[in-house]
Structure formats: C-alpha cells, structure tokens
Amino acid sequence: MADRPQPPEVDRAAASRRAVEARRARAGLKRDVAMRVISPQELLRRALADPTSAAGAMRVTDFLTAIPAIGENKRDRILADLDISPVKRLGGLGSRQRLALQAFLDERLPEPRPRAGRSRLLVLAGPTAVGKGTVAAHIRDNHPEILLSVSATTRAPRPGEVDGEHYYFVDDAEFDRLVAEDELLEWATVHNRHRYGTPKAPIEAALGAGRTVLLEIDLQGARQVRAAAPDATLVFLLPPSWDELVQRLVGRGTEDAEERARRLRTARVELASQNEFDYRIVNDTVARAAAEVAALAD
Ligand code: 5GP
C-alpha cells in the first residue's frame, strides 16, 4: 500500500501551533463568560456570525458549563431538553437548535435593557483597572460640553495631581464636614482605605444649565447615585476580556501581590453587578469607548 502523502514538517508544526492557539482562544472565551465579561448570548452571536471563529469552534458542552451556576448535571439536562447533541459545536448548530438555545438563554439570563427617561447625569463605573479614569480624562479633554465632576478625597495627591483639577484633596475633618452638611451626592470608602465623594453643588448647577455631567466613581457610589437620583444614566465599563483585565491590573505594577489578588477578587464581584447598569461599554480603545459614553449625552 502506497504511503499517504504527508504534509511537510513545517506545515505540520504550523498547524499544531494554530491548534494550540485556537484552544487557548476558546479557553479565554470561556473565562470571559465565567467572569461575566461577555454574556452567553454575546458569545453565541459571535459563534453564529463566524462559525470558523474561536466562539464558533466551541463545544456546546463547554459553552454551557462556562455559564455561572450551570454544572455538568444541569448541562446534560439542558442539552437533552433542547435536543442538542453534546458533540455539537456552537457554529454547527442547526437553525432550530440555535433558536432553542437563544430562547433558553434569554429566559434564564435576560440581557438588561436601558431604562426609559434617563437624565443627563452620567455615572461611569466598572471593575478595578478597567480604565475608567483614562476614559473619563479623555472625555474631559475632548468633550468640553460634558462636565467631569471633581471628587473630594482624603487620600494624598499623587505626583502630578493638581488640587481642584483631579480631586479636592481634603483632610478627615473637612470630609466629615462635607458629609455632615449634606454637601455630597454620594460618598464611599474605596479599597477599604480612603474616602471619596461627589460634591453636589457643581452638579446641580451644571444640570440646571442643561449640561451633561459625568461622574467617574466606584460601584458603591454608583448605587448611591441611583438611589438618590433614580433617573441617572448608569454606564458600566467592561474590559475587552478577562485576561486583558488581569493584564492591566498586573501591568500597572503599582500594587504588591496581595493587593493585586485582592483587587482581582473585587473585580470579579464588581463584574457580577453589571446588570444593575443601563449600558455596558467595552473599553477596547480609550477613544472609541469615550466616544460611546459621550454619545449617550446626545
Ligand atoms: P484613585 O485613588 O485611583 O484616584 O481612585 C480610586 C477609586 O475611587 C476609583 O475606582 C474611582 O472610581 C473611585 N472614586 C473616585 N472618586 C470617587 C467619588 O467621588 N465617589 C466614589 N464613590 N468613588 C470615587
């Protein structure tokens, strides 16, 4: 029997590198769904848009167990109910199976929609290290029609930070006074350390003059604003992927290992709160994300 022609060595090496890369990409997507950086529906949309993509090549079994709260038993029951074979890949689902899977996801994990009648008070929050500050600074520098609120804080200025521009740097006694005299729209102790709060007066003045106001604050603050001003527009900034968020956190290099681990745990909890927000915007590039936030003011 004649030998089958074999691909040249280099091609095989390239193919095996591609296979490793594809597996890595699928594993990354599973982390994104597990950490709620992308919704299961979003992953399914990507798979159906391009069945040859990493999302398209993902097995339906891996997809389901990546979803928080679905274990192997539940997964098998779901697949039986939806009449989907466990060997199927997302990109290879038949049209009836796709619809059944979509309907199942929409019922079990509905994607939130923006609430009606929101005001020009924009709140930008998101997980640690997602780049809220950079996006907010970009908006301040490129969208003069939007007022970026300047917070009061008890932390010390970092090199280059200007009082009254980046923050109002105040001592504990002054912060106590701001709280006691009800001069803050919201305030919180961030990372268990320093207090930060949003002065009310400049915001009320700007909103009264018809301007849009942007607050770049933490999640606790965003919740307080929602309670105090239910028509505020809440925006959650997402990283392009969980791996990218980890990279940004580590890459910053300003915290020690224990602090980094603590911030990652916090980020995970923070990501789980995104459904409380009206909009989710992905910070893939700062200018694009900033433009998307600014467009909410139109
Ligand atoms: P940093 O000390 O790095 O400037 O800010 C730390 C965190 O404090 C950031 O997550 C930022 O969003 C948050 N933050 C800044 N200003 C305020 C504020 O006025 N209120 C609340 N709740 N959080 C704030």
Q: What would the keywords be for this entry?
A:
alpha/beta; 9 strands; binds guanosine-5'-monophosphate; 12 helices; four-stranded mixed β-sheet
Major β-sheet, in short? 5 strands, parallel
Q: Segments where pLDDT lies below 50 for 5+ residues? A: none
Class by alpha and beta content: alpha/beta
| Ligand roster | guanosine-5'-monophosphate
Outline: elongated
How much is the average pLDDT? 93
Across the major sheet, the strand order is 2-7-1-8-9
Using the CA coordinates, give the radius of gyration.
23 Å
- Give the amount of beta strand, in percent: 5-15%
Total of DSSP H or I helical runs spanning 4+ residues: 12
Distance between the ends: 73 Å
Assign a percent range to the helix content: 40-55%
Order of helices and strands: HHHHHEHEEEHEEHEHEHHEH
Number of strands: 9
